[in-house]
Write a structure and sequence with these properties.
eight-stranded mixed sheet; nine-stranded mixed sheet; about 725 residues
Length: about 725
C-alpha cells in the first residue's frame, strides 16, 4: 500500500491567494484588448497566463512530494558455506568432503519452504545461485568467517534476514575473530560443524621467526616452531636451508605428552640480497598429510661493509671511544679526518674520499678554524642522501654548522660555550626508537636513565616537526624539555644527533665501573647506542627513490600476486606519471607487467596464473626517458597453505558463536534439525517494510520549462493577433 503527501515551504492559503491574484491579473489584462479579439482566444490567453503564473508561484513555494511504500517481507535465511581447502580435507575421522555432503543432504535446504540468500566463502565471499554442495569446489586457500558475516550487514534489514545458517570447520586463519562480528550482526547463527574435534596424527610447521633485515657476516637467530600430535617417543629430522643450501640438520626427540616444539638455528649470511629460509621436517608414515611439514620466510641481507668518514675538530676522548667502537664491527672501513691546530688535518679529506663514504660522522665538528671548502664537500654528500651522525662538543662553531642545517634534525637558535652537566631523561614512550633497544622490554628505560651525566653547552635549538626526540635531559633531577638525542628520517635524509658530549663517560663511569666491581652481567650502553645508531643509519631501504615490493612474500597457487610501487624524485617529491615496469622470472619463464599510477607517487598492479615455485622480480621506473631507479625482490608460489596448519574442527569457537547469537550448534548427524529450529525461532516472522521517497518538485526542470513554454505560446498568439 502506498501513501502520498504533498508539502510546501509556506501556507497553502497564502499560495491560493497568490494564484487567485494571478488569475485576476490575467483576467484584467485581457478584459479589453486593442484590437478586440474573439471570446475563445481571450479565454485561451487568460488560461495560459494563469497556468504559467501558477507554475512559477508553485516553484517559489518549494513543493515536495513524499511517497511511502509499504510491503511485507517474508523472513529469509543467509546461508554461508565454507569453500576452503580445510573444509574438504582429510582428518582423523576421515574425508570431510563426505561429511559436508551428508550435512547438506540432511539439511535439504532446497526442499524446504524457507527463502535463502546463499554465499560461499574462503578468503573472499561470493553469492551463489543456490545453497547446495555441488556449488562448492573447496579451492579456497584461507578461511575468513568474519568477512563473510560482514557481507550480510548491508542488506539484512532490507531483505528481512532473520537467521544465519553456517556450515564450516571453524578453522579461520584470516580476518578478525568472527565471534565479535556475529554478535554485532544481531541475528541467531545455526552452525553445522564439519570435521573431527580431535587432532589427527600430524606434524606441522607453525611459524619461522627471524629478522626481516640482516647483514653479511653478522649472525642472525632463526626460531622454528612446529607442532607434533599423536606420536610416541621418537625422533624427527629438521632441515633448515638458505636458497636450497642446507644450513642445519638436527634431530629432535618427540614426547608423547607434548605437542609444541621449537628449535633455533644461527644463520650467518654470506651473500647480499633476498634470501629464502626454508624449514622442513621429514614426513612420518602415520601423518595424515605431509603438506604442512614445510615453511619458509624471507630475509633481506644487506652488505655489512660500510665506509665511514669521521670528522673531528680536535682529538678527544669521544673521538677515541667512537673510533674504537666502530672498528670492532665487522666489515667497517673507517676513515678519520681530525683537525690539528688551525685549518690543517692530520689526514686531508678529498672529494674522492667522501664519494666513497656511506656514512658521515661529525664529532665536535665543525670548529671555528674548519675550512668552508670541507663543509661544502660534506654538504654535497649529505645532499645525495648519505646519513649523518652528529656528536656535539665544547668547541663546535654552531654558526658554521648552520651550513649543514638542512640535514640536521633541529634548527639552531643560539649558542654559547657555557658548559654544564645533564642527565638523560628517557620516557617509556621513546623505547620504540631502534637506538634504545637493549632487551626490548620496558626495563630498558631504567637502564638508560641510570647512566652518568653528559656535558652540554648552552645551545638552544628548535626540533624540526618531522624529527623524533629520543631523549630529553635533567639538570639536578629537574626534568627539562630540551632535547639531548634527536633523530630524523625525512626526504631521503637520515640523521642522529647527540646534543651532549662526553659520551665516553657512559663507558668509563657506567659499564667499566661495574666491571671493576666484578659485575659482568651489565650492558655496555655506550657501545649499544653507537652500534644501534650506525645500524639504523645504514638501513637506507626506506630512502630509495624507487621502491617496489609484493604485498606478501608467500602466495597460494590461486592467488593474484600484488605489486606495490613508490616513486620519488631527488627531493623526495612523489612522481605520478612515471612508467613502472616489473619483470618476473621463474622456472617456467618470464612475465612483464606495467604498474598503474594511483596518485601521490604510488603504483599498483597484479599478475595471476604464475607457476608454482620461487620467483624473482626486478622493477624499473622511468620518467621522460630518464631512469629514476630500480628495485628487486623475491616471492614464492605454492608454499603450504595455512589451511593445513590446523586439521581439527574449532568446536569451541563455533559453539561460542551459536550461544552468544542465540542460535544452536549441530554436528553432522543432527544437521537435519537446523531448518526446523530456525522456523520455530520467535524472531523468524514476516516484517513490514516502509520505504519513504521524497522528491523536490521545485527542483524539477519540467515545471519551469512548461511555464516558459506557456509564456512563449501566449506571446506568439499575441503577436499573430496584433495585440498592443
Amino acid at each position: 500500500m502506498n501513501s502520498y503527501n504533498l508539502v510546501i515551504a509556506g501556507y497553502w492559503w497564502l499560495l491560493a491567494i497568490f494564484i487567485i491574484a494571478g488569475f485576476a491579473l490575467a483576467f484584467w489584462t485581457y478584459t479589453k484588448t486593442i484590437p478586440p479579439i474573439s471570446q475563445s482566444k481571450r479565454i485561451l490567453l487568460i488560461t495560459m497566463r494563469t497556468l504559467a503564473l501558477t507554475l512559477l508561484l508553485f516553484v517559489v513555494f518549494e513543493p515536495v512530494i513524499s511517497i511511502i511504500r509499504s510491503s511485507v517481507e517474508e523472513p529469509r535465511v543467509a546461508v554461508l558455506l565454507d569453500n576452503s581447502i580445510s573444509a574438504a580435507a582429510k582428518d582423523a575421522r576421515g574425508e570431510r568432503r563426505e561429511q559436508y555432503k551428508a550435512a547438506m543432504e540432511k539439511l535439504n535446504i532446497l526442499g524446504s519452504n524457507i527463502t535463502t540468500d546463499a554465499y560461499s566463502f574462503d578468503s573472499e565471499t561470493r553469492s551463489i545461485a543456490e545453497p547446495s554442495f555441488d556449488s562448492l569446489d573447496f579451492s579456497g586457500q584461507n578461511t575468513d568467517i568474519s568477512k563473510a558475516v560482514r557481507r550480510l550487514y548491508a542488506t539484512s534489514d532490507e531483505k528481512n534476514t532473520r537467521a544465519v545458517l553456517l556450515v564450516t570447520d571453524g578453522a579461520f586463519n584470516a580476518g578478525n575473530n568472527p565471534i565479535f562480528d556475529a554478535e554485532r550482526f544481531g541475528k541467531p547463527f545455526y552452525i553445522i560443524g564439519i570435521g573431527d574435534t580431535l587432532e589427527p596424527v600430524d606434524i606441522s610447521i607453525q611459524s619461522i621467526v627471524t629478522n626481516e633485515v640482516a647483514y653479511i657476516d653478522n649472525p642472525v637467530p632463526i626460531n622454528i616452531n612446529f607442532k607434533a600430535v599423536g606420536f610416541g617417543k621418537e625422533k624427527v629430522k629438521l632441515v633448515v636451508s638458505d636458497n636450497n643450501t642446507i644450513l642445519s640438520e638436527q634431530e629432535i626427540e618427540l614426547e608423547p605428552d607434548r605437542e609444541k616444539y621449537s628449535a633455533t638455528v644461527e644463520y650467518m649470511p654470506r651473500t647480499e640480497g633476498m634470501r629464502k629460509i626454508t624449514a622442513k621436517i621429514a614426513p612420518k608414515e602415520k601423518e595424515i598429510t605431509d603438506k604442512n611439514n614445510i615453511g619458509s620466510e624471507f630475509i633481506r641481507v644487506l652488505k655489512n661493509k660500510r665506509n665511514i668518514a669521521l670528522f673531528a675538530g680536535a682529538p678527544s676522548s669521544d673521538v677515541s671511544f667512537i673510533k674504537q667502537s666502530l672498528s670492532l664491527e665487522k666489515g667497517v672501513v673507517l676513515n678519520d679526518y681530525i683537525q690539528k691546530q688551525g685549518a690543517e688535518f692530520y689526514k686531508t679529506p678529498t672529494q674522492a674520499d667522501l664519494n666513497a663514504s656511506e656514512i658521515i660522522v661529525l664529532v665536535g665538528f665543525p670548529v671555528q678554524s674548519t675550512p668552508q671548502s670541507v663543509l661544502e664537500m660534506i654538504a654535497r654528500e649529505l645532499e645525495r642522501g648519505k646519513p649523518l651522525l652528529f656528536v656535539a662538543g665544547l668547541a663546535v662553531d654552531y654558526n658554521k654548522l648552520k651550513s649543514l642545517q638542512n640535514y640536521l634534525p633541529f634548527i639552531i637558535v643560539s649558542s654559547r660555550p657555557q658548559e654544564f652537566l645533564a642527565l638523560p631523561d628517557i620516557k617509556p614512550s621513546a623505547l620504540s626508537s631502534p637506538l634504545l633497544r637493549v632487551t626490548g622490554s620496558d626495563s630498558d628505560a631504567k637502564l638508560w636513565n641510570n647512566l652518568p651525566p653528559l656535558f652540554r653547552t648552552e645551545t638552544f635549538v628548535r626540533v624540526k616537526p618531522e624529527s623524533d626526540v629520543v631523549s630529553t635531559m635533567k639538570i639536578n633531577n629537574a626534568a627539562l624539555n630540551d632535547p639531548l638525542i634527536v633523530t630524523r628520517n625525512f626526504q631521503n635524509s637520515k640523521c642522529v644527533a647527540f646534543l651532549g658530549y662526553g659520551l665516553y663517560r657512559w663507558k668509563l663511569l657506567g659499564y667499566a665501573q661495574e666491571l671493576s666491581k666484578g659485575r659482568e652481567d651489565n650492558y655496555d650502553l655506550f657501545s649499544v647506542l653507537i652500534n644501534n645508531s650506525m645500524k639504523w643509519l645504514s638501513v637506507s631501504e626506506q630512502n630509495k627513490l624507487v621502491k617496489i615490493r609484493t604485498a606478501r612474500k608467500i602466495y597460494n597457487p590461486s592467488d593474484q600476486v600484488e605489486f606495490i610501487g613508490e616513486v620519488y624524485d631527488q627531493s623526495y617529491t612523489p612522481i605520478d606519471k612515471a612508467t613502472v615496469v616489473v619483470k618476473i622470472s621463474g622456472e617456467s619463464g618470464e612475465r612483464e607487467i606495467t604498474l598503474n599510477s594511483l596518485g601521490s607517487g604510488r603504483y599498483y598492479g597484479t599478475v595471476a596464473a604464475l607457476a608454482e615455485g620461487d620467483h624473482a622480480f626486478s622493477g624499473t621506473a622511468t620518467f621522460s626517458g630518464r631512469n629514476l631507479g630500480s628495485d628487486n625482490g623475491r616471492f614464492t608460489i605454492g608454499e603450504v597453505s595455512l589451511e593445513y596448519q590446523n586439521l581439527k574442527m574449532n568446536i569451541a569457537l563455533l559453539k561460542s558463536i551459536a550461544e552468544r547469537s542465540g542460535g544452536k550448534f549441530y554436528l553432522v548427524p543432527d544437521a537435519g534439525n537446523a531448518i526446523d529450529d530456525i522456523q520455530k525461532h520467535r524472531s523468524f516472522k514476516p516484517n513490514s517494510v516502509s520505504l519513504r521517497d521524497e522528491t523536490a518538485l521545485w527542483s524539477l526542470p519540467y515545471l519551469l520549462g512548461f511555464a516558459i513554454f506557456l509564456f512563449a505560446v501566449e506571446w506568439f498568439i499575441r503577436k499573430r493577433s496584433g495585440l498592443i
